[in-house]
Amino acid sequence: MLCMALAALDSTIIATAVPQIVGDLGGFAVFSWLFSGYLLAVTVTLPVYGKLSDTFGRKPILITGVIIFLAGSLLCAAAWNMASLIAFRVLQGLGGGALQGTVQTIAADLYPMKERPKIQARLSTVWATSSVAGPALGGLLAAYADWRWIFLVNLPVGALALWLVVRHFRESLPARDRTRRPRVDWPGALAIFACGGLLLTALVQGGVAWPWLSVPSLLFFAGSALCGAATVLIERRAAEPIIPGWVWRRRTISAVNLALGSGGLLMVAPTVFLPTYAQAVLGLGPIAAGFVLSTMTLSWPVSAALSSHVYNRVGIRNCSMIGIGAATLVLLTFLLLPYPGAAWQPALLMFALGAALGIFQLPLIIGVQSSVGFEERGTATASILFCRQVGQCVGAALFGAVANATLNGRLATAPTDIRPGLPDDLDSVSHALASAGALTEQAADYLRRAVDVTVEHVYLGAAAAAGLAFLILLLLAPRRFPLHGEPGSGPGDTSGDGAGSGVGAGAGTENGVGGGAGAGTGSTAGTSGTGGEEQPAAGSASGG
Question: Which of 97, 239, 250, 268 could join 395 via S-S bond, C-beta 3.0 to 4.6 A?
Answer without folding.
Answer: 268
